[in-house]
Amino acid sequence: MKLVLITGLKEIDKKAIARLVLQRVGQNFKHIDIDSMVRIKTDLKDMDKIRSYISTSYKKIGKEIVKNLKNEANNIIITGSASLETIYGYYPLITKDFFKTFNPDLIILMEIDPSVLSKDEIEITRLKNQQIINRNYLILYSIVSGAFFRIVKIEKGNIMDSVEYISSILREI
User: Fold this and answer.
1) Long-range contacts of 142-149 (CB under 8 A, 24+ apart)
2) Domains in the chain with CATH codes
3) CA dihedral 99, 100, 102, 108 (to 10 degrees)
4) Are 104 and 78 in contact (CB under 8 A)?
5) Rounded-to-integer distance, Cα 162 and Cα 104, Å
6) pLDDT digit string (tens) for 32-89?
7) In whole numbers, what is the pLDDT of the chain averaged over residues?
């Protein structure tokens, strides 16, 4: 069994991308979407409460995933957002505990030109910064976990080229 993590900005519909990829690579993959399993509270103001909430939420998710995968022979695609912007700065949503527990074989970071998502300069800058943060988090986790790391750019908002590219990689697994 191989485990593939597809992640990126919350604004990128990673779940839809995974569905399209699964249509192309066949039935030897199962998909689990972390974002649909937890609703991140963005109104928390206390640093320790943010850490505790995220840690507790993702531990529950981890247990649920492990329970669902016990006898799974298929390869797994897990999708989810990479980080959360808080009033204190960015915080990883895909945590070191995730990498210790699931030890993915491949990390795919989806990136997009932020001007496709917004015309507001402040929002474009925020999205660019968060993509840089995501890239740095995931490079570090790749080093620590030994996972392969691939950046896939969604060019001009056209996800189909990215879907085909990811599909070609996963057909080799």
Assistant:
1) 142/107, 144/96, 144/99, 145/99, 145/100, 145/103, 145/104, 146/103, 147/5, 147/99, 147/103, 147/104, 147/105, 147/106, 147/107, 148/105, 148/106, 148/107, 149/106, 149/107, 149/109
2) 3-170 (3.40.50.300)
3) 20
4) yes
5) 20
6) 888 877 666 566 677 777 777 777 777 777 777 776 665 666 888 999 999 988 888 8
7) 87
